[in-house]
Amino acid sequence: MNLLKKVFLVDLFQGLWVTFRNQNPKYIYTEQYPAERPKVAERYRGAPRLNINPDNGETLCIACNLCALACPETLIVVTSERNETTKRKELTTFTYDTSRCMFCGLCEDACPVDALELTQDFEMATYTREGQIWDRQTLEEGPKPTQYKC
Amino acid sequence: MSDTTFLDSTELVLNMGPQHPSTHGVLRVILKLDGEKVLGTDCVIGYLHRGVEKIGENRTYAQFNPYVDRMDYVAAISNGLGYCLAVEKLLNVEVPARAQCVRVILTELNRIASHLLWLGTHALDIGAITPVFYCLREREEALKIFEKYCGARLTTHAFRIGGLQYETYDGFEQDIRDFNKWFLPKVDEYEELLTNNRIWVGRLKGVGVLNADECKEYGVTGPVLRAAGVKWDIRKALPYSGYEKYEFEIPTRENGDTYDRYIVRMQEMRQSVRIMAQAVEAIPEGPIMGKVGKVIKPPVGEAYVSIEAPKGELGYYVVSDGSTQPYRMRVRPPSFVNLQALDRMVAGGLIADVVAIIGTLDIVLGEVDR
């Protein structure tokens, strides 16, 4: 029996049959990026965004500096100045160095007002290293990847 | 002047790696060869050293959490679990039952993902190209569940000290059930491809034998130890995260060769599915975060916790001096310890066996070098 199995290459044909079964085109998983963009999950931790109030365009950030303290890589720099009339801290600049970011989400967890958020954008490539350091304007607008038509 | 030159010597020293694709990363093995026979090996490690333990001493407890994912990056969730358990032991915090249950599910899913990557690349090293495509296809589904749960696929940062940061998403249970149902026939499919295949058997049987005594001598753990017939699994021996509640077996084999390690890992994937199936039906309601303050400041002391990672015993030793940062952070990585047995396993084999043995040890260089 064993000899027959050996002569007729049963084990090899068994494997080939598995390969054959998987030939079905409905098992094709290749994504045609960039024509076909992957749909990332809702909780995806991608490009950071500094949210603004949609009604008046003012930033939601209260310049509490908690995100900068939570960040393991200390890549967030927040500066603020005190408004003399309202006696409140107001955000002046917000710098986020995405080149060192590991998208752990600790800054997002630390934010008490949901101003800083990691979004579903994942196309963050730039031509320069400086381009990876995002200022307040970039953070509010988000990355603008080139849309290719294929 | 002697009459013999180096050409007369039959010994040849050859470097394998650090760029060799079958060393699974940046491992350099110096081979002492006699023809194709390997007389001895010498491992050179450290090409991927990032000083993770030192980084741990310079970060707060919560901040160090994402870094542990970057050691064994194919089993990031297991790493995160080990670290969280160690700090929780230091803090003496009780993790809620719901969090423990979700942790078990995700860790077992990660074990499957890790074993799938091992199977694919191991088969690729041996010369079977097909399994890697199927394995990565199935692994993709596991990674999708991670992405849906915590927003990252590989270096997940899924757990936090004291419990979980994220509540399970809608349809989490159903996703796990679907995965279980869909995945088990796939394991049979891999077995159909490989288990009886004459080339596979010929390349693996009797290669890299490490018997039980040698395993204990080297401190080797995980599937390598179990393939030698030692029934040792931390999940059973020192249960953590409520593993004592689940029914599962520890697959073992007798011979301790590469083929047995393959069989043990295949069985482990089935057992992981079994644990997940039990856990997903019994996720309790309740909070997901234990009583942990915003600033984690453990009392002076030390804690060692080891868990059963996909590759073996993964231990975290944390020493606290009462400040917000660990005084000392030590990791006992399974890959690093298992790699020490390479020389013993290879001795007397062929160069092709070295490739098979590095594959079967299932090392991740991120963890070896830290």
Structure write-up:
The complex is a heterodimer of chains A (150) and B (370). Chain A is 23% helix and 17% strand. Chain A has a domain at 40-141: Alpha-Beta Plaits (2-Layer Sandwich), CATH 3.30.70.3270. The longest helix of chain A has 12 residues, at 10-21. Chain A is built from five helices and five strands; from the N terminus they run H-H-E-H-E-E-H-E-E-H. In chain A, the strands form two sheets. Chain A has a three-stranded antiparallel β-sheet. Chain A has helices at residues 2-7, 10-21, 66-70, 106-110, 136-141, and strands at residues 48-50, 76-83, 88-97, 116-118, 133-134. Chain A is α+β, with helices and mostly antiparallel strands and 150 residues long. Chain B has 370 residues and is of the alpha+beta class. Chain B has one domain: Cytochrome-c3 Hydrogenase, chain B (Orthogonal Bundle), CATH 1.10.645. In chain B, a hairpin with a 2-residue loop joins strand 4 (159-160) and strand 5. In chain B, helix 3 runs antiparallel to helix 4. Chain B starts with 10 loop residues before the first strand and ends with a helix.
Distance between the ends of chain B: 48 Å
Q: How are the strands of the biggest sheet of chain A laid out side by side?
A: 2-3-5
The counted number of beta strands of chain B is: 8
What is the succession of H and E elements of chain B?
Answer: EEEHHHHHEEHHHHHHEEEHHHH
Low-confidence stretches of chain B: none
Number of strands of chain A: 5
User: How is the main sheet of chain A built?
Assistant: 3 strands, antiparallel
Assign an overall shape of chain A: elongated
Q: Note poorly predicted spans of chain A.
A: none
Roughly how many Å is the radius of gyration of chain A?
A: 25 Å
Question: CATH topology of chain B, what is it called?
Answer: Cytochrome-c3 Hydrogenase, chain B
Cross-sheet strand order for the largest sheet of chain B: 1-2-3
State the oligomer: heterodimer
CATH class of chain B: Mainly Alpha
Strand content of chain B: 5-15%
Mean pLDDT rating of chain A: 84
| SSE arrangement of chain A, N to C | HHEHEEHEEH
Question: How many domains make up the coordinates of chain B?
Answer: 1
CATH topology of the domain at 40-141 in chain A: Alpha-Beta Plaits
